[in-house]
Amino acid sequence: MYLKEYINKLKTGHSIDEKKWLDQNAILETIIEEIPDSRTEEWKNFKTNSIKETSWKVLLENSTKQDNLKKEQHRLPNSIFFIDGHYSPEASSLKKESDINISSLSDYLNKNPDFKSILFNNPSDYAESRLSGIKDKKPTYFISLNSLLSSGIVIEVEKAKNINETINIIHSFSNIEPEIVINPYIIIVCKEGSKVSFQEISHNIESWNNSLKEIFIRKDSKLTFSSLQERISTGIKTSSINCHIDENAELNLKVLNRERSKEDIRVFLNKENSTANISGIILSNNRDESDVFCKVTHIGRTSKSNQNWRLISAKNSKTAINGKICVNKNAKGSDASFYSKSLLLNRKATSFSKPELEILEDDVKCKHGASFGEIDNNSIFYMQSRGIKKKDAIILLIHAFINEIGLDIEDSSEFSKNLIDDFFNQINEK
To answer: Which residues contact 401 (CB under 8 A, 6 or more apart)?
Structure first.
C-alpha cells in the first residue's frame, strides 16, 4: 500500500485498534503538513527533497524472509535481529539466560498499563518550544510518522541485573523494492539497578529507514548504547533517539553517523544526579550530508551532561551538528558541556557546528566550544620523511582525530573498525 493511501485511509475514520494510547487525530494533523526542510531550524542542514518527491510504499506486515538477506547482513552472536523493521526471533541469537525480555509493545502494555503515560502518543511530546511561545511540531514529524506505521518492540533489562556481554541490535534490509519506507520502533527499558551495553548496527539500505527508539533508564541503572551506521549508497535514513534518565542513572551514548543520514537525539535528565555522556563521529563524502541534532534537557538537580563530537567532511560533502543544552528552572547544580571539532579533507567540503544554550537557572555550570581545521601538512611531511606514505599518514592523522573522543575504534568490535576503514577507502577513491 502507498503511504499517502494509508494516511488518507486513517483520515477518513479508520483507527488503529492496537494503538489506542496514540492521539491519532493530533498525529495525523502533523503528518498532513509539509515535511520539514531547510526552513526548519533542526533540519536546515539535511535535504529532504528525495523524501518529498518519492511515492513511498509501506510495509505494515513482516513479509521478508531471512533467505532474502545478503551474506554480509547475516547475524552476529548474541543479537536481536530486525528484518525490514520487523523483529525476527528466527534470525536472532540472544542467549536464553541473558536477563533480557523481548515482547511486542501491545503485550508489554497489557502487563504494564501505566507505561502508556510515558510513551510517545502526541506530537507535542517532543515539540520544540520557540521564543515566540509556539510549540513547533514539525521537527519531530518523522516520529509521528513512525508511531502510525510501526507496532513497536520492547527490550526490557531485568531489575538489578549486570549484563557483561554486549548485545547487538541488527537492522538488515532486503532492499527488494527501492521505494519502501521502513519503520523500526524499539523501546528499551533498563529497570532499577541494571547495567547493560547495546551495539546497534544499521546495514546499507536502498530505500528509506525511518527509525524511532525510546529509552527509559530507571533509578541506579546504567546503559551504554552505540549506534553504528553503514554507508548508505542510494537510500536515506531519518532516525530519532529519545532518552529518559532517572535518579542516579547514567547513559553513555556513542554514535557513528554516515552519509544520507539524519540523527535526531533528545535526552531528558529527569531526576537528581542523572548523567548523560554523548560522543559521536559524523562522516560524509561526495556530495552527501551527514547531520545530527542533539538536545539535552536538564530537569533534575545536579544532573550532568557532556557532548563531544568529531566531524569529517570529504570532497563536496557536508557534515553538521546542532548541539543544544537546556537547563530548566530549579535544575540547580547542573553541569553541561558541548565540544565539537570539524576536519575538512577538501577545500570544497563544508562543516557546520552550532552549540546552543538555553539556561533558566542561575546555579549551573555550562560551557561550549567548536573548532574547524584541515589536515596538518607539517605532520604529513614529517611522517613522509620517516618513510610513511602520504595516504597512510593521512589515515593515521584521521584515526588520531577520531580517537580523541574515546570511541576506542581500535578496541571496539570488528564491525565498527570496518566502518571506519570503509570510509578511508571511500575518500581515497578517485
So the answer is: 310, 312, 341, 343
Residue ranges of the domains in the chain? 3-378
Q: Output the pTM of the full model.
A: 0.94
Burial of 47 (0-12, 13-18, 19+ CB in 10 A): middle
**Cα separation of 430 and 423, whole Å?**
13
Output the CA–CA distances (angstroms, integers) from residue 317 to 96, 224, 284, 285, 349, in the order listed: 44, 30, 6, 5, 5
Cα–Cα distance for residue pair 350/287, rounded to 1 Å: 10
- Nearest-angstrom CA–CA distance, 412 and 251: 18
Secondary structure (3-state) at 307: strand
pLDDT value, residue 410: 43
E strands present in 179-260: 180-182, 185-190, 195-202, 208-217, 222-229, 236-245, 250-257
Residue holding cell 571506519? Answer: 420
CA 333-334-338 angle, to 5 degrees, is 145
Q: Which of 61, 116, 104 is nearest to 85 (CA)?
A: 61
Cα–Cα distance for residue pair 116/121, rounded to 1 Å: 8
Q: Cα Rg for the chain, rounded, in angstroms?
A: 21
Low-confidence stretches of the chain (pLDDT beneath 70): 15-18, 60-75, 406-415, 430
Query: 342 with 404: CB under 8 angstroms?
Result: no
In the numeric block, the cell 618513510 is attached to 387
Task: Return the C-alpha cell found at 180.
Answer: 519502501
Chain centroid to Cα 70, Å, comes to: 24
Q: 235 is written with which cell numbers? A: 537510500
Reported as half-sphere exposure (CB side, CA atoms, 13 A), residue 339 has a value of 9
